[in-house]
Amino acid sequence: MAAAGMACAALLAMPASAVPITVQDATGKPLPTVMVSRQPVQAAAVDTSDNGYPASGKPQQAYVELARFTDAQGQADIPAAEHPWKIRLRKPGYQDQSLLAADLGSKPIVMAAESDPAALAEQQPANAWSSTIDFANAALKKEFMLQCNFCHQQGGAMLRRERSADDWDSAIKRMVRYGARLSTEGQKTIPALLEAHWKKIHANPALVPAGTPWNPALAQATIRELPIGDSMSQMHDLLLHTNGMVYVGDNLQDRVYEVDPATGKYTVYKIPPRPGDQLGGLLAGRLRDFPKHETYQGIHSLAESPKDGHIFITPSYQRRLIEFDPQTKAFRYHEMDSGFYPHTLRFDAKDRVWFTLALSNQVGMYDRAANKFTLYDLPFRSLMERITVKLTPFIFKLLGWGIPVANYVKVDHVSTGVPLPYGIDITPDGKAWIARLHTDEIASVDPDSGKVTMIKTPFSAPRRLRSDRDGNLWIVAFNASQIARYTPSTGEFLRLDLPVVPKGSDTPYSLNVDRSRHQVWVNGTNSDSVYRYDIATQAWSMFPMQRRVAFTRDVEISPKGQVYVTSASFPSWHIEDAQPTLIEITPR
């Protein structure tokens, strides 16, 4: 961890020239909690010779963006950049303002209050907009938020437009082909409900409530952001390696980004397809109408071996694991003869790779020393579910041939046929724990006996989970806007509401535990934010992102306490400027 600590410490180093910024309102009063973002006047020139992306193995240099927040006196110091730069001032309730660095003087910057109801609504994050959705059926709305927030925000700028019911119907059919499990009833009734709802909101934007207030403690925080990929990318999961680099997988373009967070230098490594691999892999029909993708593997999750530092990757569109050597930059493939949709993976202390197989209802374990896969079957809810899961590979073949199977298969409200084992982690006692999203359960696998134990959760949609230093599990409740702690020794659940405004309006995708500081960091996937929960004091903090529609899916934490997420919307053109980024949060 020493190398990672040195690299992260470098992030705090500030150029000798720091520009003081003072912000006031129209009456001359200091404005606190103004987000002051340093942005390049023009994006850095990077290589685009490989179908719009840098050539594999060719180093690139991006410009690092930076944001700080004004204190009680309306002041913040912004480090000068070595390239032409500007600042953007942003605070809910006030009009955005941009200034070139050359135009910054010694006088305070005055921000004008915003009074237009439509403009005030536009400032609010997606969760504020989606909180207004009323289907007159709370269960149907929860299902909608579960199934339609898989890939992008609900209530973001692209999804709150006025559309006809037919347009919504077409969009939902496409999302179902991508993998959403919205019930047949929901598919029929929701399009007309959405048409009527967004027409109502756009006629009266004052109905959109304010989002979560920005806390004065943000004046202690710094947020750095590095543009990587483009509007056709999906920066799904990431890994902070012990070598100090951050590795990010582009799920749509089969590329791994190796990023030096201290400098903004990065290198892209393209994962080559194996002979016989088809575009789209085993799910060839899923993205047939997506404008551009090079998905043979479908990079999903990354984890580092505790033995040799090699990185293992789940390619969700294949039956294999991929191994990447950060020193030689070589990829190696480990093929399986069964299982479907390798999803999230973690290493145990014995250098074994544990991973979920989301669409075959299994947990996998790869023993590197023995070069052997072991698959553990999870129980089915019914005979029909067993049959459906076994037929899943054939169903995707039919979809690849253009046969609209989804149009003829009835989907119920509990997604029978797709129980979906999702997140996974290893507790200090060596057990593998799994969250099964569609069945409201977690499970454990004992590696010595192979025993599988299923445990019902008192909340819906457990998505991803992590263990703390005491062996307790922290779990996101995706469409319940909560996280939960499960204590294996007592079998007790503790449920905690996210500190989001409006209450209950977020969809936390994932979390991670800072074991040394005893804190939990949570993705505010629908609210352009990241949350921190201090286990000892039970105190919450919220950190807003620079870009709107910052849909994040994963969290990594450095030894020094920096936190890394990626803006991982699918598609990335949903993001405010259509630019996915690697984001670093330094709380102090």
TrEMBL record:
<dbReference type="GO" id="GO:0009055">
    <property type="term" value="F:electron transfer activity"/>
</dbReference>
<keyword id="KW-0732">Signal</keyword>
<protein>
    <recommendedName>
        <fullName>Lyase</fullName>
    </recommendedName>
</protein>
<dbReference type="InterPro" id="IPR015943">
    <property type="entry name" value="WD40/YVTN_repeat-like_dom_sf"/>
</dbReference>
<dbReference type="InterPro" id="IPR051344">
    <property type="entry name" value="Vgb"/>
</dbReference>
<dbReference type="GO" id="GO:0020037">
    <property type="term" value="F:heme binding"/>
</dbReference>
<dbReference type="InterPro" id="IPR036909">
    <property type="entry name" value="Cyt_c-like_dom_sf"/>
</dbReference>
<feature type="signal peptide">
    <location>
        <begin position="1"/>
        <end position="18"/>
    </location>
</feature>
